[in-house]
Amino acid sequence: MRRPAPLPALGLAAACAAVGLTACSSADTTPPAAPAGITAQAGSATSVHVMWQPAPAGEGVTNYQVFAAGRLVRELPADRTMVDVTGLVPQTAYVFTVRARDAAGNTSAPGAEAAATTPAARAEDRTPPTAPARTTARADGPRSAVVSWSAASDDTGVTAYDVYQGGVRIHTAGPAETSTALTGLQPETAYTFTVRARDGADNSSPDGPAAEATTAAAPGRGPGTAPSDLTVTASPGAVTIAWAAPDTGRPTTEYELHVNGRPVTVIQFGAGALTGGRAEHRLTVTEPPGTVWELKLRARMPDGTWGAYSAQRRIVLAG
Fold it and tell me: How confident is the model at residue 255 (pLDDT cuts 50, 70, 90)?
């Protein structure tokens, strides 16, 4: 273990006296390991997207520092492992490094350098690229997936592709790439991916078509816990959702529904209400027609914990 073990119950001062030490301290002076897997990709003429792998939990990292040419440009909490560095100069080469820092203030050595060159700026470019016309996704084991898309077009040229999961950007790929491997996913979880194209003026296309993939169970784990085959139907004043219950070994009667990333209600079914493993629920809505909802849900497991989320569905409320 890299953290010093606590002293016995004598207390720090008494323990120091007991062993005849003139100075004693339990201060943590061991720096975290340098961040790994650092990549940099120009997103526009004035921005670069920098990513890296999260530090192992035992490192005690509390934040990351991002440097451009040795100058600190961004500082992020430990749960962030990507950032857009903005305010850069067009047609300029940059070298980025990342350091990890722990709660005691110890800072790691810099990770491996990642280089990127910003493209030329295009004056008065307000036209976004076209959306990728095709998106596919497949799971590649319990913690990774491969997402592919068709190339987009733009009047000044596509500079990057942004991959989103559930409406959150999780990866940026280069303009010549039409596929990427995503890692750090959760086992036996349904994911919904979309891709947007971006140009040198930071104009983003609409989402391409959604693609779904469900990661495999990790070795030694039981059946998947995510509800499957989720369908959503809008009608005037209502939304009807239906899904297949996960196989938990006994009826699953409680589900937490999320709308636009927030939990909105817990759906409960009485004993014997569910038959054939299929569930359905009707929501009364008061939002105006045309409102966009993105819905997903998860089941409460027999042990009282929440299972994995279903795939996300997008719907426009009806009038």
Answer: very high
Where do runs of H (alpha helix) occur along 133-257?
Answer: none
Contacts (Cβ under 8 Å, ≥6 apart) of 54: 78, 81, 184
Flag whether the pTM goes above 0.70. Answer: no
Rounded to whole angstroms, the Cα distance separating 23 from 55 reads 32
Q: What letter does residue 103 receive in the DSSP assignment?
A: T
d(CA 51, CA 239): 38
Find the helix or strand (DSSP H, E) in which 8 lies: none
Q: Give which of 258, 313, 315 is closest to 287, Cα–Cα.
A: 315
Distance between CA atoms of 286 and 267, rounded to whole angstroms?
18
**What is the CB neighbour count within 10 angstroms for residue 253?**
17
Say if residue 297's pLDDT is above 90.
yes
Cα 161 from chain centroid (whole Å): 16
d(CA 138, CA 126): 34
Burial class (CB in 10 A: 0-12, 13-18, 19+), 142: middle
Question: Given a cut of 70, is residue 314 above it in pLDDT?
Answer: yes
